[in-house]
Amino acid sequence: MSKRGRNVYRDRRWKAARREALKRDDYQCQAVELDNGEKCGRRGILEVDHIVPISKGGNPFNLDNLQTLCRRCHFQKTALENSTDHNLTRARQEWDNHMNTTFGATP
Known about the structure:
This protein is mainly α. The protein has one domain (about 5-105). About 45% of the residues lie in helices and about 10% in strands. A two-stranded antiparallel sheet has the order 1-2. The longest helix has 15 residues, at about 90-105. The chain is globular and about 40 Å long.
């Protein structure tokens, strides 16, 4: 994570945006399963994710760039975003298509 990225999480604007995203998303995971199109909906350990990563120019404080994800879904999304494994190429393409359909942009 870059120095800029680390500093975002110390900023009071991040704390406020994170709180608003959790509230907006009714404290449940917003990830949509690629295989069946259903929302995950978990309410356990939740994290607020940048849809377009900060490292790729995503606005760190804009609610339109934030989504609530459970730890499992956040891990899967991040693994796909960072993947260079050829076995994950198809999964990455499916994820990009899903993101483009859902949000109108890919990270």
